[in-house]
Design brief:
alpha/beta, 8-stranded mixed sheet, 3-stranded antiparallel sheet, 23% strand
Length: 529
């Protein structure tokens, strides 16, 4: 297959123009509300097993469940926009009594034939919980592989997936004035950001994505978001923000003929250069004290660790006078073959086909030419120091284990780590020794014993929330943490333990103070009020 035919296979139909006036979106919102088009009600239509099967790419169980029910507006909407299948015109008319099928068609959401109505986009309910509380919206995106029956087009606008919920959960839940959503896509991050911001600027290189994002905000009655066209920081040149959030198009794609470049994920740069460009540009666009939360990929090269490469990007920013606090968490690492297969499948090309094999070859050739041995994926959290301050948090770590319990996401954990880093920077060892610490409410201790022994062989401090950290503790550290109830100072606890154990107090302090710093940063210990 040549490049032209490959591109044609990925554009199975003309993408509709999305947009409507406020009267139409108000009426559509009313119809969706009246039908009960919510996550809970849709899942109840076909049950948990069918919902799980849908996630695996099969509609059979859901269709069988719907066939056993009477036709309702909810079932019609679910068939049309979630399953991606046409419905009878009469059923569509009943589902859109306020907006009308004609207006929904004019908005670009459906295609109407004489006796049937087919979906032109994916429109589905979305539910979430953040630090303000529970909420729900309806989100438009382009039809997926299941509905299209073929690979995605390169102008595809992605809907809500795992990366979406990860980044929305990372957003710091602290009210601010201005937020930048860099690479907004369907607009979901900008809409989330608006819950904690007076105003949001959302940018993208895709005019279609901006149209869909604008429609989603309007459909859900959300104002205060300005949508701008352009690449990376170009649309906001000279501007600063209190917070920047971004799920940038970080996927590493060969820049070779015949390899599709999807706007929603491919930034057009070689390797991980786009992530590097975004990270090194944050300092110029953050207000003092401002933060950024992003997702990204970074490459491992022969003899070079991926996290060390990310560290070097921040070190270069330091030399440019744009030093930033940086916390990078690598959640996953893939070898070149697994990475290539993941993203080729993501575009809708099926394994076992000649096209799939050709694309895998192109990816592996690119990785081999640039000596790439693996690709890491994770989170990046940044804060710009206030005037007169300096960067004091540089943490680059791998956390592949299961996270703790975080119903509202990791945003509160991000805020707490940044606050803890600032507190630790302001407390040298003398000040730390005078401080009063308390054990966080989600920390427990595990002890393991050999049969018949009274003394534990292993003691582990376990964090219930946050990153779910597990810290092995010796007798001294376990006793120290157990005594941290906010009443005694760190120095007083160390002195008491030294007297009980017969260990030199200075030697014990030299062991426990660094451990206490780590536990404060990790959130297992907190400064007492």
């Amino acid at each position: 297959m040549n490049a032209a035919s490959a591109a044609s296979a990925r554009t199975p139909h003309t993408l509709p123009t999305i947009g409507a006036d406020a009267a139409v979106t108000d009426a559509l919102r009313q119809d969706l509300t009246d039908a009960g088009f919510t996550v809970e009600r849709v899942d109840a239509l076909w049950g948990a097993e069918a919902a799980a099967s849908l996630h695996r790419g099969s509609r059979v169980a859901a269709l069988r469940a719907l066939a056993a029910r009477d036709t309702t507006p909810l079932g019609t909407l679910a068939t049309l926009f979630v399953l991606g299948l046409p419905v009878r015109r009469a059923d569509a008319d009943a589902a859109f009594p306020s907006a009308s099928v004609q207006s929904v068609e004019a908005s670009g959401l459906v295609r109407v034939d004489a006796d049937s109505v087919a979906p032109a986009v994916d429109l589905r309910p979305y539910a979430f919980v953040d630090d303000i509380g529970a909420g729900s919206w309806w989100i438009v995106s382009d039809l997926g592989e299941l509905a299209l029956g073929t690979a995605l087009g390169e102008e595809h606008v992605l809907g809500i997936g795992g990366a979406t919920t990860t980044l929305s959960g990372l957003q710091v839940p602290v009210p601010v004035r201005r937020v930048l959503d860099l690479g907004t896509g369907c607009g979901i991050q900008a809409i989330h950001a608006r819950r904690f911001a007076d105003e949001v600027v959302a940018t993208d290189i895709s005019r279609r994505a901006l149209d869909i994002a604008r429609f989603n905000a309007q459909l859900n009655g959300i104002d205060g978001i300005e949508f701008r066209f352009g690449s990376l920081f170009e649309p906001v040149a000279g501007e600063r923000f209190d917070r920047i959030v971004s799920n940038p198009p970080f996927v590493i794609t060969p820049r070779s003929e015949g390899v599709p470049a999807y706007e929603y994920r491919d930034g057009g740069m070689v390797g991980d250069a786009l992530v590097e460009t975004v990270l090194t540009g944050l300092g110029e666009h953050l207000e003092p004290g401002g933060t950024a939360q992003l997702l990204g990929n970074w490459e491992y090269h022969w003899g070079t660790d991926g996290l060390d490469r990310v560290r070097s990007w921040f070190e270069r920013a330091d030399t440019d006078g744009l030093g930033l606090d940086a916390w990078v968490v690598e959640r996953e690492r893939q070898d070149p073959t697994a990475y290539a297969e993941t993203w080729i499948r993501d575009g809708g090309t099926k394994p076992g086909t000649p096209e799939f094999d050709r694309l895998v070859g192109a990816w592996l050739d690119d990785f081999a030419d640039r000596r790439v041995t693996g690709v890491g994926f994770g989170y990046v959290v940044v804060r710009k120091p206030r005037p007169g301050g300096a960067a004091h948090l540089r943490r680059f770590e791998r956390v592949p284990e299961t996270l703790g319990s975080n119903p509202a996401g990791l945003g509160a954990t991000v805020a707490r780590v940044l606050d803890a880093a600032a507190w630790l920077a302001a407390h040298d060892d003398v000040a730390l020794a005078a401080a009063h610490l308390a054990v966080a409410g989600d920390v427990t201790e595990e002890r393991f014993y050999w049969p018949g022994n009274d003394d534990p062989t292993v003691m582990t401090l376990v964090q219930g929330g946050g990153l779910g950290r597990r810290v092995d503790a010796d007798t001294a550290l376990a006793a120290f943490v157990g005594a941290c109830d906010g009443e005694l100072s760190v120095a007083a606890i160390v002195g008491a333990l030294a007297q009980i154990t017969g260990v030199d107090e200075q030697v014990l302090a030299a062991d426990l103070l660094p451990a206490a710093r780590d536990l404060v940063l990790d959130g297992l210990l907190v400064p007492a009020a």
